[in-house]
Automatic annotation (TrEMBL), chain A:
Protein name, UniProt field: EF-hand domain-containing protein
Keywords: Calcium, Cell membrane, Cytoplasm, Lipoprotein, Membrane, Metal-binding, Muscle protein, Myristate, Nucleus, Phosphoprotein, Protein transport, Repeat, Transport
GO CC, one annotated term: nucleus
Stored SMART domains: EFh (SM00054)
Assigned protein family: Belongs to the calcineurin regulatory subunit family. CHP subfamily.
Amino acid sequence: MGSRASIQLQEAELNEIQSETGFSHNQIVRLYSRFTSLDKGAIGCLSREDFLRIPELAINPLGDRIVHAFFTESNNETVNFRQFMRVLARFRPTKSNQNKNKLNTREEKLKFAFRMYDLDGDDKISKDELLSVLHMMVGANISEEQLGSIADRTISEADTDGDNQISFEEFVQAMERVDVEQKMSIRFLH
Amino acid sequence: MDGEFLKLTLYLLCSTVCCVIGLTVVLAAIGKSLGIRKLYTSVLLSIFEFGKSKIERYEKQRYQREPKDSESHDDSDRSDKETTENGGDPLIQRDIAIDAYQGIRIPSNRADYDLTNLKKEFHMSDIMYFAKCGVETIIEDEVTKCFTAEELRTWNFLTRTTHGHQYVSVRLTVLWCLGCLLRYLLLPFRLVLLSIGLSWLLISTAVIGLLPDISLRRQLNRYASLICHRILCRACSAVVTYHGRENMVKNGICVANHTSPLDVIILSCDNCYSLVGQRHGGFLGLVMKLLARTADHIYFERSEVKDRFIVAKRLKEHVEDKNKLPILIFPEGTCINNTSVMMFKKGSFEVSDDIYPVAIKYDKRFGDAFWNSSKMGMVQHIFDLLTSWALVAEVWYLPPMHRNENESAVDFANRVKKEIARQGGLVDLSWDGQLKRMKVKDSWKTKTQDDFSKILKVD
């Protein structure tokens, strides 16, 4: 199935994706093969159901948020291969850049993480949004009051301009000592 | 003169064909083999190796201008030898994985990811564990690849497995054409054998079905069934190697990993079983009905909850009757692509404390036995099989396993599954094979949520 995929993907498109995302030729071919195997309807793009058909993603507490990230990129009901690759490009290790690529910088990775929390897309994380995401991650194991106090503490520590919400700049500041490279990069073997 | 000559050659041709087929049937009846199929498969293997070296050289030339990523340099040595048991060669190194039963796991055992003894305050970066896990799983996950045919590492001269390789060099193209010719020439022979096998099945079950239930009937049934399955095996040019035949079951429950309805045929060449399975429609359903005329097979409808109790009861009765045939069960409940073993349903492990495990592994270079029921129907699958090179499989009869005191049926099932996976060189997965058709259950999220909550320090 791998080689059949490389025939369908045009050389020109491959080169464009390579320059845009920084993935190697071989990686793009392999990822295209994966894309087509997820595309059950063979329509050339993926729907939400196609993503959630992956069991390990469907049981991920933040599965819906991750899928949402792809659809924000495409701004559409479906995700095509270019958009798929652009999202994946954010998870490329930063160190592996020969030419500076603008998609896998520390800032882009932090933006991805920020958007996991920012449910309504208004570029601010409110207490309710934080509580929602906390709820997704812990399920029924921690009580409402305890979650509430965790949310309060988190916001007060990060919030510098006093609006009781976390903006992207405040988020970046809070991640100062976090090894974003290690936590948000995927190790490619080829 | 020409007419006479033509008639003579036709006559000779027909008689050789009939002789060959007759010989095959006779050999099947007595259970012996001339070793021709084994010779054929070893010749094929050397041709595949030739093809592999040619393609490797071609690919090297094509990608020579690709500058190697500094990232991949660190792992390049490992990636050459890296073969997951799944046979495929992974694109990424999984750092964090989640599972319905085991929660959060760190497959790469990275020291900086050690979540086991962690107890920390919540930090907004914690979301990154789930985000990275999710994206890793979108790139590569261990479940979805179980439900499609495995990708082969070396080309086996069938365009159905890899497209485009036949254009690599002239020699390969010639070999591929010859290969096509050979396979499609063999097809009519195989079809004839298949029809002989099926008609034997039809006739023998009809005749033996008329006898009352006495030991003679059971003897006859045994011989008839062995002959029928041997003929069917020869129709696919099957070369099956049986290991550990001293562990073969005589009475009791036998479990095996499931790849295709062919599993039944190759196991039935050696021993006679009672089958337990989902009722099917179409061609397969017809064959199942025929088989049921002379032996006590247990068929059920998976969706019928009542059926489950009836089946369990019938299983128990069957096992306790020493005169009855051993039962063959596939606890996965569905066909998996022979790279992994998925969750074993506990039903059969509740009925009996003694289980006879069997591991089946197919050599996919000669032809893929995996039946992807969502992609193709039975007839298409049979056609693919009959036009493949051969069907090469290894069967290991493992020593019987006994349930320990205080061991639950689920734990026992997992223990047996682990043994089968180990022997067959398959990946042991705890995911449910029913995921082929069903969606995940929301309750499966809880183990991961539990694991994460344990890490958090809460006042």
